[in-house]
Amino acid sequence: MKINKKGVVMNDPMPEEIAELLGRLIKNNEILGQKLIALTFVCAYILKEQCMTSGTPLVTLTRLEGELGGISEAIALQFATGSSDPKSNTGEITRLIESILIQANDAVTRAIERE
Predict the structure, then answer these.
(1) DSSP 8-state assignment for residue 82
(2) Which helix or strand (DSSP H or E) is residue 91 part of?
(3) pLDDT tier at 12, thresholds 50, 70, 90
(4) Which residue(s) pair with 2 in the sheet?
(5) N or C: which end of the chain has fewer CB within 10 A?
(6) pTM of the model
(7) Torsions phi, psi of 9, nearest 5?
């Protein structure tokens, strides 16, 4: 590969090994992303069902949100102590839990409106 100062110019083809590794990396990341999305929806569904079986779904959801928020902070702190980049682990875990809670909140709200 040659790099021109005005931009990147690729004169040589990419080695097959690198192309294969990049392809596998992309595929693995896509699979992981799909699993995280599925996990988010499953967790949100379980939270919704738990809330709807209680006599006070919104109160139960609020309590569960608080508990899960505390758990996510504890998990993030645990990862932060064992990582060279604690902010990235903390942020990813927090975003995942927030996504689950947003989905659960929407599901509970829609279920209450339907009743």
Answers:
(1) T
(2) helix 86-114
(3) low
(4) 9
(5) C
(6) 0.60
(7) -120, 125
Distance of CA 32 to the CA centre of its chain: 10
Tokens 């083809």, residue located? 13
Question: Token pair of 52, please?
Answer: 């709807």
* Long-range contacts (CB closer than 8 Å, 24 or more residues apart) made by 61-64: 61/104, 61/105, 61/108, 64/104
Query: What is the C-alpha end-to-end distance of the chain, expressed in Å?
Result: 63
Q: Which pLDDT value is given to residue 1?
A: 45
Query: Domain boundaries in the chain?
Result: 37-115
> CA-to-CA distance for 77 and 102, rounded, in angstroms?
22
The residue with tokens 């990862």 is: 79
Tell me how far apart the alpha carbons of residues 21 and 28 are, in angstroms, rounded to a whole number: 10
